[in-house]
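User: Run a structure prediction on this.
Assistant: Running it now.
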Amino acid sequence: MSPQLELARKLNLLLDVVVAEGNTPYTFRQIEAGLKERGLTLSRARWAYMITGDGPLVTDPALLTGIAEFFRIPPEYMLGAAGDLPDRVDAQLEFVKSLRVARVVSFAARMLGDVSPETLRSITQLLQEDGTEAGPPA
């Protein structure tokens, strides 16, 4: 996986966790405002290519630290520093995301009623796929 796609995967995972924890998704404006409070600027275009993995790799430590602080996670997760902290954070975020998927599958099963096991497996597989292809938040 390219460094750009890895950064996009991390950012999308963070965005998913916000929703999984029962909150409404962050908008670009909220993220932009949170960074502005930290003396940082982020354009909509830059954010879009950061979360899609297209374009140049963003390596600005101040910006990546600001994003980590906004999401209330250790900056090392975004900076890719050595050690197991990023792996632990990543595992925790993946776990929260998997809980969210399980809740959605359970809800879908209840709502859809008499659905074939194959259809339910297909729905589950789609929900479990990595969300890095998702477009930028509204």
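DSSP finds seven helices and no strands in the chain.
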